[in-house]
Input
Amino acid sequence: QKIVLASGNQGKLKEMNQLLAELNVEIVPQSDFDIPEAIEDGLSFVENSIIKARHAAKLTGLPAIADDSGLAVDFLKGQPGIYSSRFAGEAGNDAANNAKLLELMENVPAAERTARFHCCVVFMRHENDPMPLVCQAAWEGKILPEACGENGFGYDPLFFVASENCASAQLSKERKNQLSHRGLALKELVSRIKL
Ligand code: ITT
Output
């Protein structure tokens, strides 16, 4: 049994591989196939994750799992949201996205820095699966005034986790997976998936 993991994000892939290990199936990254990226033109995490899973299932002929995720900052009315990976523009990267977020949050008081990560993971048995398995979760935090930590990816250095009193990028990958939006959504997916 093989499942294609429909993501090109190395940070996500590492976390997802760890969380999916207990399924005892062969998890193959999408990069093992020579296929173009899906056009993510949905308006929600759930739409975009279905678009990515369906695209990968269609082009590989394998069951697929996709993740669409992002950061919603209350002071920014939910931005960057579904545009989290391209907040600083199409050619943006984690460093540019984080710099833009820090700038927009400059001098915002601590009480108004609340934010959460969202994750929607989807499993589709085949491209026409009429009932994808959809699992969503969120992770509450606050936007730090400066970057802290080296672990993780994306906005992890700016995401303060109150229960651990540190940034998400200061957590081990095991601890992040126990707490995070992705960890929680994939835990539910693993418990509900029927292969
Ligand atoms: P794929 O579509 O190939 O999976 P992507 O990076 O384009 O990769 P998304 O469109 O779902 O994926 O964007 C998610 C962005 O949200 C990601 O690039 C990070 O900037 C941010 N993000 C999501 N989960 C995160 C996490 O656990 N830690 C830090 N940042 C995260």
